[in-house]
Structure formats: structure tokens, C-alpha cells
Amino acid sequence: MLAESLALTAALFIVGVIGVLIHRNAIIIFMCVELMLTAVNLTFVAFSRFYGTAGQVFVVFVMTVSAAEAAVGLAIIIAIFRHRQTINLKDINLLKG
Amino acid sequence: MSSFLDSIGYNGWVLPALLLIPLVGAVIVLLLPVRAAADSATAIETPAARQLGFWIFVLEFVVSLGLWWSFNPANTGWQASIDKPWIPSWGVRFTLGVDGIALMMVLLTTFIMPLSVLGSWTSIRTKTRSYYALLLILTTGMLGVFLARDLFLFYVMWDVMLVPMYFIIGIWGGERRIYASIKFFIYTFLPSLLMLVAIIYLGVFLRAGAGAPPDFSYDHLLAAANAVPVRTALYLFGAFFLAFAVKVPMFPFHTWLPDAHVEAPTAGSVILAGIMLKMGTFGFLRFALPLFPGAAMNPTVRLIILILAVIGIIYGALVAMVQPDFKKLVAYSSVSHLGFVMLGIFALTLQSVQGALMVMINHGISTGALFLLVGIIYERRHTRLIDAYGGIARVVPMFAAALTFVSLSSIGLPGTNGFVGEFLVLLGSFQTYPVLAVISTTGVIFAAAYLLWALQRILFNPLDKPENTDIPDLNKRELALLVPLIAAIIWLGVYPAPVLRRMEGSAQALVDRVQGTATVTAVSEAGGR
Amino acid sequence: MLLQTALEAASQAAHPLSGTVAEWVWLLPVLPLAGFVINGLLSLNNAHFGPSDPNTAEHHPHPEVLDAAGTHGEEGGSGDDDHAVKRHRWAGVVSIVGPGVLIIAFGLAVAMWQAMAGAHPEAPFVQRYFSWMPVGSLQIDAAFQLDQLSMVMILVITGVGALIHVFSVGYMRDDPGYPRYFSYLNLFVFFMLVLVLGANYPVLFVGWEGVGLCSYLLIGFWFNDKANADAGKKAFIVNRIGDFGLLVAMFMLFANIGVLDFIGVNAKAVELGAGSALVTAICLFMFLGCTGKSAQIPLYIWLPDAMAGPTPVSALIHAATMVTAGVYLIARSAALFSLSPVASLTVAVVGAVTAIFAATIGLKQWDIKKVLAYSTISQLGYMFVGVGVGAYVSGMFHLVTHAFFKALLFLGSGSVIHAMHAAYHRTHSHEDAQDMRNMGGLKRFLPLTCGLMWIATLAISGIPPLSGFFSKDEILGTVFARAHGSTLATASWLGVPGGTLLYIIYGIGLAAAFLTAVYMTRMMLYTFHGPTRTGTEEENYLHEPSWTMTGPLVVLGILTVAGGWLNLPELVTDLIPLGPREVLGHFLDPVVGSATARITAGASHVPAATEEALILTAVVIAVSGILFAVWRLKPAKVPRKRDAVPETGLEGLVANKYYVDEEIDRFIVEPTYKVSRTFLWRIVDNGIIDGLFVNGSAALARAFGWIGSRLQTGNTGEYAWAIVVGVLILLGAFTLR
Q1: Quick one: pLDDT at residue B389?
Q2: Is B385 helix (H, G, I), strand (E, B) or coil?
Q3: Residue C131 pairs with which residues in a beta bridge?
């Protein structure tokens, strides 16, 4: 039972990773990051079913952090958009060197 | 004089005082209020800085002068030692001491420094407080290197020397100063890191027991050094060799020197040539040879080093001959002179080692004087190119006389100091390596060739350029800074016996130890360990 | 060292000269040193201190000071057409101090000689002043040694030196560098005295190099002329090559017998092994030094160029004293040279070859000073032949007589040149005042000079009863005697038996004597006889110089005539009771006697009849040389210098001194310079060591940095890729371990 759940969450995680790597639009990448976080949450839930409630505590933490991070991240993206008029990651390379 | 010094407890406080006075002086100089140059074309910023700097250096010299009388030549151990714990958990102690070799180096340093300040009097015009403060810190570093009896302290002082010189070259230097200062710093710093590894290894490997802290004290390491396995000793010697060989500078590690010398301001060149180049050879005498006699006297190693030294003598002279820039010519002549020192050290007879020490002192004085003279003429015509001059002996007779005299000392004319050193080195080396000594003797021919030819193109020959016709001669300050150097040249040439006698004990002890006939370890005076 | 101290103590404690004027020997060099200091300070009287801040000093170039007139004799700036040249302010003081110290020194030297002649010391009188270089077993003291050999040299140096100083008062009268000249000249005498008074090789070496320095300063006295400065530099560097040899000889001595003082070396020389390779090597290296200082082959090349200096300098340094230092050194080291027949023969061979080589060149020189220069080289060759065959007394004898007549010749030519210069100056002519083609018939104008120079010419040619005859003949006679029987005759030199070699040397000596007579007569004919080529206008201004210049000439003339009495040979005194027998020989016997005896050990005496034949041959050769020159040379046919056609063929070869200097330039000097500049500096130092390794490693570090920077694209997507790939690698590493 656990194995199948982990397979599901792994698949979700991989989809998220590939999404991060492939997409150029910053907001889509954020959504994929959320997908990765969701996959991690599911992993914790799956384990908590077999090994105790500590996993569910972690889920609450992760959800809080992801909410905060999404808010800040989207705020940064909007700020970048205001300056660069684009959120295509290929065009945002100020750290080049 | 000695009784007066005893009555003030001189030996107890002189060495830390020598290190402390410049540091305190540096702080004071930095705290001077800035007096901006009103008209930056003609005035000098904060003239008080140079005044204060000069008098602090004079004080330093006077304080160190007492060592000449308080030093007992019969005692071959450490004198005027002090010993305080510093970092016990690392086995590092703050230990200072002077022996015959260090004595002359200390006196050379404190003698040259006030003269180099006088040489910078009018050529350093901006940021003067920083400049003189850096000179003071540099002095502490240099004296620390000569006086340290703890390897860790030695290493710290060794690196303390590099930083102020880097800034001096980089800020107040010539056109390519950034390149020269970075090259100087990295080139000398890199092998000294290898030396650090070797020092740490020694301190750890030779500690008292498995659980004891490492012990970096020089006397302890000297006594325990033969516990190091032969192979390792060779590597350790190699690390020390690289660090010092770059500093000497030995061929082929010498290429930082021409750039550093040419781009440095006058005082920077004087100190670099006069004192800092002696660090390398001093390191060999103090550390590399006594700690690893087996590795140093390994016939192949010894022969390679001697051959490099001889190549340095001849190569340095030949390349000096073709330099268009007079300062670079003097820089390459330093390579040639220090080749004699290395020859003397590794030929390892009492005469050759004493000769090497004399060449170290003499080179400091005569090459220092040469750089000061170059600086003097540079302030007037702002060019160091030999071809820009010609026939100026008619216009500046005092300068011409001084330049000729100092060049003769550099050539090694008997009656000047240069002869004593070179003669002893060659005579001494002839006893162990006759062929190499004979080849090196041809160096005296080349030295005459390159210096006299340069002198001719600058001082003699037709006076054919209008801009050379009204060069002002030496002023009183410049004469005042040349007179002590000329006096030293004559004194060391005619009556070097007091100097030789003070160094003889330590030199003989070194020769005995490295050749394996050493007896008891050093005996130090009261107040030491 | 114990031996040395014992001998020293022995010679000190009971020395016949202790407590006499000999104890003032230190004053001899100190006097001219004081002269140097005083005159030197006076010469700087025109110097002015500069401003305290040279960077801000105003710059006013003075193009008119440019070196129009900075050459020969007028180095103080534009010449004064008015002929009323302002003398140096302190010229009067200098004229007293300069020659004065020499005259006092000469007086002192005579007093010491009197003491010595009365005391007949067998051992040298050593005065130890202080310890100079004490290093373990090497104990070199600043010490002076007064013995008969140094006494002879001292008398020559101070005596002839004083005369030349007096001459210079007149000769250099109008030179702006008058004090500087006398300070250098005094300094030279100081070093020369240190050289001959030194009690050990290092102190001798101080004087040895010191005179080289003064020679450099004086040759390049009129330094704004590049040719003069070049000549001075050449002299110093060539001398240095010789000094290298002397240094190595010293090192070998110390390494093998542990002493460097003359008493010690003389005592221990036998330990080196008679005829051994070691003692031969030491002597040959020492002889290299002598060839440098005394201008023998191969290091003679600096002496002709040295004629660029003022003529009194040429007289003092390059005729009478400095160049004789090599002869003195060999005589001083007689103990060593007498132990090595090969080295002694080498000295003699080189001396002989040099003698004839230089004589041939002298035949075709037109500059009067060059003729005398090559003549000096040639006569020095004779001296070396003398000391080479172990005739140390003969070599020294010729040294003394040569000092007299060569100084006379040079000073006489100085008078001539002085007169020619003055004449050309008055007529604003730019002709060469030293070229014989511009002279001729000067007997009318300078009769005293002419007469005195003829005396010197006859002396140098070897006409009896002048001094040159006695000294030269003694050398040749001794060569013959050695060939007859000595350690040299039985030795083998590069496969040639010593006896044969010595006969050949004798023959070369005779040939050179013939040539000497020829070229000297040629010089006299072209200068003083025949038609005057100077120019009719100039003739009005040619005259004898003042008494300061002619006085010394007369004194030297007397010495040239009387000098032979110093060492009249046995043969002559037996036939005609002319005077005391072999004064010099007896005088020098305590110093060189044992060494000479070593060479002549067991040799039989040359029969008197042979000796007489030898003397006769020499005289015949000399006379025939003079007659040959008079017969073949036509002074009337000599063109003026400006009409002269350059010589070609063999004549051109000789006139251009066999192109030796040019060849040395082409094969040694230029290649050294080129190799140093292009290969050593540009390629090795800048290119390989600095470029390839130092800057190359910096470039390598920069390259690595550049590669690293390729990772910093600023593209977030690529960073994400990097993170993912990194995590996968780490996971892989952990799981697959």
C-alpha cells in the first residue's frame, strides 16, 4: 500500500520537476513548484498512515511555508514584471557573469 | 658603553621596543590631522607626516645602536632574548632573540629606514600619512622576521612584510604599478604558503608527545630536527627553499624583481633591495640549512642550488647590461649580487659564509644608495631611461661623484665594502667548489662592464640634449642622506673587522652544525629560555 | 700561520730598520692621499646645491651649453676666443699641493733609502697597522712591507712622479679641470704606493685595482668626448679581465698553503711542489693579471686607446709606473715563478712575442703618442722576458731605466703637442696636433726638447753608454745565459725544449731591438727633422714651453744618461773602471736572490768572450737600426695628414694594428651584447620565464576562472537544471556506493 502511494507522489514530484525545468513562464514554474510541494505533502501523509501522526504535523508546516513563499514569490514576479515587462525567465539574466 | 647599557637593563627590553616603536609611531602618524596641499602642484600633503616618520626612524636607529655594544661576540647563542607565551594551545610563544647574523641585519634595517624617508621627502606628495605609516608597519614586520625565535611568529612577520610593500608599490608607484604589486605579492606569497605547511608539519610532528600541543619554538625544533625522516626532510627543505628562493631572488624565480623595483617609489625600491631581499638569504641561514642539514648538504641538491646561484651571477649581469631603464639595470644587478650570497652560503666554509653575510650588508648599502641616486635624478628629469641622459657630469658634479663612487662599490673595487664581501665569498667557495668559484669570479668582469657602460652613457659622453643642461645638483638633504651611506661604504671596505668579528660566532656555529660537527646547542643569556 | 708570525716576529724584533725613518712608511701613501682630498674638494668648488624640492624647480634648458666645445681640453663650456682663458680659482693652491706632496714623499723615500742602504736588511720590514679581514684561518692584515724591491719602486714612483706633477703644472695650466686632474693624479700615486708597499696579496690588490680606477678616471679626463670615455671604460674592463686571473691565483694560494702574505708565501712556496701543475697554474693565473695591467698579449688592447688622456698621464701611468706593476708582481712572486719553469718560460715567450708584435705596429703609426704607446708595450715585453727567465734584477733594471727615458719621451712629446695645440689654437685650425704628418722640422722651434728626446731615443735603442743600453743588454745577455744552462733550459714548453726556446727568444729580442731603433728614429725624423708641415702661419707660434715643463725634461735627460750606473755589468767594470759593480743587483739580492739561484742552479758561467760578442751584436743591431731608418725614410716625402692617402695591403694591415680591436669587437663584444639582448633578455627572461611561466600561470588561472564563469549565465532555468542534476548525482553516489 505504501509503495503505491509513494509511486503516486513520486510521479507527481517528477511532473513538477519537469515542469520547473521546461517552462519559461515564471508563474507556471511557481505552479509546478506548488505541485512539487503537494507531492511532498502527500508523501508525508502516506507515511503518517503507517508510522504515526508526526507526518501530518509536517504537512501543516509545509502548507504554511508554501503559502508564504507563494505570496512573496508572486510579489517578486510582479515587481520584476513592472521593470522588465516580461516574466520569461530567459530574458531575466541580470546575474549573468 | 656596555656598562651604561647594563645599568638601564637594555637587553631586557630592546627587542620588543624595536618592534613596538614603529607600530606606535604608525598609529600616531595616521592620527595626524590632514593638511591638504594648498596648491597640489607644488605643496605636499601633511608635511608633518614625513617629519614625524623621520624622527621615529631615527629613534629606532638610536635604540638599535645599543645592540652593537651590548652584543658579546664570544657568545654564540641568543642574546637580548625575551620569551613570553602567546598562544599556548598551539604551542606558539612570543620569543625574540638576536645572534651575530640577526644583529647586522637589524642594524642594516634601522640604518636604511631613516635614509629612505629622506629619499621620499619630496617625491611622495599625496596620502603621505598612509605612506609613512605603512613604512613603519613594514619596519616592524622586517625586524620581526630577523628577531623571531618561534617559527609561527616568524611566519606571521614574514607575511606582515608583504602587505605594506604591496600597498606602497600599488599606490605610489609608477605606470605599471598594479601589475607589479600584484605580481610581487602573489609570487612571494604562494611559496610561503608551502612554507607554512612545512612549518605546521614540523611543529606538529616534532612535538613533545602524542597528546602535547605543537611546539614551534626554534631551539626545540633545531634540537629535534633529525627525527624527521630523510625523504620528508627533503620535501620540507624544498618548501622552505621555494619560499626563500623567490625572495632572494634566485634564478629562475627572479622575474618579479625587475617589475617591482622599477614600479616602486624610490623608498620602496631602497627597502626592497636593501632589506627585503636579505630575507630570503637570511631564511636559508636561519631556517632552511640548520633545520635540514641532511637535505641541504645532499650533493645533488647542493650542486643544483650552487649552479643556479652561478647562473644568477652571470645571467643577472648579462641581462643588466642590455637594459635601457637604469632602475631595471640595478634590479638585475641585485640578482647578480645575491647570486654571490647563495654561492657563499651553500659552499659552506667559514670564509664563504662570512663573505655571504658581508655581501648581504654591502648590497643593502650600495644598492640602496644606487636606488636613492636614481630617485634623485628621476625627481629632476622624470625619466629613468639611460639614453635620455648623457654628459651630465658637467652639470651635476656632486651627483656624478656620488654615483661613480657608489657604482665602484657595487663593482667591488678594493677599498670599498663590495670587495670585502665578494673576495671572502669567492675565496671561501674556492675551497669546496673551485670550478664554480672560478666561473663566478668572471662575474667581476661583467659587473664592471654593465655599470661602467651605463655610467658612461649617463654621466660622460657629449652633453647633447638641451633638457639636461640645467639639472640642479644635489641639495643639502640629498647630500645628508648620501654621506652616511658613503661613509659606511668606506668604513666597511677599510675596517670591516668589528663587523666580521660579531658575525663570526654565529657563522662558525652554522657551518659546524650543517656539516654535522655541532656540539652543544645554543646557550642563551639571562632572560632567555 | 705560526710560521708566518715567527718570521714576522724575527724580522720585527731585530730588524735593522726598526726605529729609523722607515717607521714612517705609512706617511708615503698618506701624503698623496691628502693631496687627493684637498684637490678634490677644491675641484668641487664650482658645484652648487640644488633647490630643496627638485620636482617643482623651474626648468630652463640652456642649449648654448650643448657640447660644442666640450672636448679635448675645454670641457668647461664654450671656448673663449680671447685666448685669455680664466684659470680655476684655486689653481694656485693646487699647483703647490699637487706636486708638493709628491716632492715631500720623494724626500721621505730618499731618507728611507739612505737608512736601508746603511742597514743592509736581509728580511723585509713589515709594519702591521690593523686587522683587515679576520675570518677564521684567513687573517689578512692591513700591513706595509718595506724591502729593497719596494724601495726601488717607491723611488721611481715618487721621483718620476714628482717630475711629472711639476710638468703637469705647465701642461694643464689652462684646463678648467685643473684641480680635478691633480686630485686624480695624487690618488693614483697613493694607490700605486699601496701596491708596492703591500705586505700581502690582498693589500697589493687594493693598489692594483685602485690604479686601474685612476687610470679610468684620467684616460676619460675630458669625458664629454665619447672616444675618451670609451677608452677609459675599455681600460678598466680589460684590466678587470686580468684582475680575474690575479684573484684566482690568490684563491689557489690560500686553498693550498693557507697564507697570502709575501713572507709566508715565500717560506711555504716549496710546499706547492717544484714544477708541479699547481704552482704552474697559480703562476699562469697571476700572469694573466700581469698581462692586463702591463698591457701584454692578449690584454694590451687598452693601452693605445689610453693615449686619449692628457700626455703627462700617459707618461706617469702608462709608461713609468702603473704598467710596470705586472713586472713588480712577478719579481715579488719570484719564489713562485722560480718553482715553475713552464710558467716562467710562458712569461718570457709572451713578453718576447709582444715585444716584436708591438714593435711592428709602431713602425706605421702616425700619431706620436701611439708610437710611444706601442713602444711601451714592446719595452714591457722586454721586462717580462727579463723576469720570465729569472733575471729579476735585469727586469727591474729595465723598469727603472725605461721609466726615465719613456717618461722623457712622453713628456717631450707633450711639449711638442702643447706647442702644436697652442699654434693651432691661435690660427683656429682644426688639424690634428698629435699627428706626425702635421709636424716636421720642429728642431728649429723646440731645440731643447729635440735634443733631450734624441738622448732618450738613443737610450731606448740601446746605444752605449746610455742607460737603455745597459738594461736591455743585460736582459738579452741573461736570456742567452739561461739558454746555456738553467732549470728553464732543461724544461719543456709545449713540447719545445726550453733551451731552444730561449735561443729563439733571444733572437726575437734582437729583432725587436732592431725594429725599436727603426721606429724611434722614424719618429724623431718625422717630428723634428725635414721640412715643416705645420703651416707657415702656425710656425710663428711654435716655441719651447715654460721652465715647469722643460725642467723635468732636463732632469729626466740626466737620469737617462746616468741611469746605466745603477747596474753596471761585471764585464764592463772589469774592462773599464766606470763605477761600482751591479749596484742594483746587490741591492735587490736579499729579495730575489734565492729565487734566481733556484733557476740558475748548477748552471755554468757564460764565457767572457761570448758575453763580449753578445754586447757587440746588440750595439751593432741598434746602430744599424738607426742608420737603416735614416737611410730609408725620407721626411721630405711625408704628406700632411689631410693630404694623406690611407695605406693598403700589408702596410694598411700594420697601420691599422692588425685590426685586432675590430676583430675583438666583431667576435666577442658585439655577439655578447646581441646574445644578452635578444636571447637572454627578450627570449629567456621576458619570453620564457616571465611570459610562459609567470604570466602564463596567471593566464591559466584566468582561464579556469573564465571556464567557471560560463556557469554563471544568470538564467534561472539553467540553475534549476544544475540543482536537479546535482541532486541526482548525489543520490546516485550514495545509493550506488
Answers
A1: 93
A2: strand
A3: C141
Best of C36, C62, C133, C238 to substitute, by most chain B Cβ atoms within 10 angstroms, is: C133
Mean pLDDT of chain C: 87
| Cβ contact C131–B497 (<8 Å) | yes
Percent of chain B topping pLDDT 70: 96
Q: Tell me how far apart the alpha carbons of residues B450 and B150 are, in angstroms, rounded to a whole number.
A: 42
User: Would you give the distance in Å from CA B390 to the centre of its chain?
Assistant: 32
Residues A2-84, CATH architecture: Orthogonal Bundle (1.10)
Q: In Å, how far is C309's CA from the nearest CA of chain B?
A: 14
Alpha-helical regions (H) of C389-497: 392-426, 447-461, 467-484, 487-490
| Dist CA C468 CA C679 (whole Å) | 53
B38 vs C: CB within 8 A: no
Q: Are the beta carbons of B176 and B191 closer than 8 angstroms?
A: no
Report the range of poorest mean pLDDT among B242-246, B258-262, C663-667.
C663-667
The SS3 assignment for C541 reads coil
- The band of B452, judged by pLDDT with boundaries at 50, 70 and 90, is very high
Chain B interface, best mutation among C135, C237, C238, C664, by max B CB count within 10 A: C135
Contacts of C547 (CB under 8 A, 6+ apart): C170
Which residues 6+ apart lie within 8 Å of A53 measured at CB?
none
What ipTM was estimated for this complex? 0.92
Cell of C559: 737620469
Alpha carbon of A21: minimum distance to chain C alpha carbons (Å): 6
Closest CB to C55: pick one of B379, B452, B476: B379
B neighbours by CB contacts (3+ pairs under 8 Å): C
- How many Cβ pairs within 8 Å bridge chains B and C? 216
Instruction: Establish whether chain B is in contact with chain C, requiring a minimum of 3 CB pairs below 8 angstroms.
Output: yes
Q: Give the rounded distance of the alpha carbon of B176 from its chain centre.
A: 24
Taking 70 as the threshold, does the pLDDT of residue C86 lie above it?
no
- Specify whether the CB–CB gap between C220 and C309 falls below 8 A: yes
Q: Judging by DSSP bridges, how do beta strands B92-98 and C125-135 pair with one another?
A: unpaired
A84 contacts chain C (CB < 8 A): no
Closest partner residue to A92 (CB to CB) among C716, C720, C721 is C716
Q: Where are the domains of chain A?
A: 2-84
Pair C61, B470: CB distance under 8 Å: yes
CB C294 within 8 A of CB C384: yes
**How many CB atoms lie under 10 A from the CB of residue B171?**
17
DSSP for C98-118 reads HHHHHHHHHHHHHHHHHHHHH
Calpha distance B486→B492 (Å, rounded): 10
- For CA atoms B520, B521, B525, B526, the dihedral sign is negative
Closest CB from C709, C713, C724 relative to A21: C724
* pLDDT attached to residue B42: 65
CA C699 to chain A, closest CA, distance in angstroms equals: 18
The SS3 assignment for C580 reads coil
Cα separation, C703 vs C688, in Å, equals: 19
Confidence of residue C9 (pLDDT cuts 50, 70, 90): low
Which residues does chain B have within 8 Å of residue C75's beta carbon, measured at their own beta carbons?
A: 394
Interhelix angle for B299-321 vs B326-347, to 10°?
A: 160
Q: Residue C228 has which C-alpha cell?
A: 675618451
Min Cα separation C708/chain B (Å): 21
**Could you tell me if B470 lies within 8 Å of chain C, comparing CB atoms?**
yes
The helix (run of H) or strand (run of E) holding residue C128 is strand C125-135
Tell me the C-alpha distance between C494 and B101, whole Å: 50
pTM: 0.90
Distance CA(C303)–CA(C296), nearest Å, equals 10
Residues of C in contact with B376 (CB under 8 A): 54
Q: Are B12 and B528 in contact (CB under 8 A)?
A: no
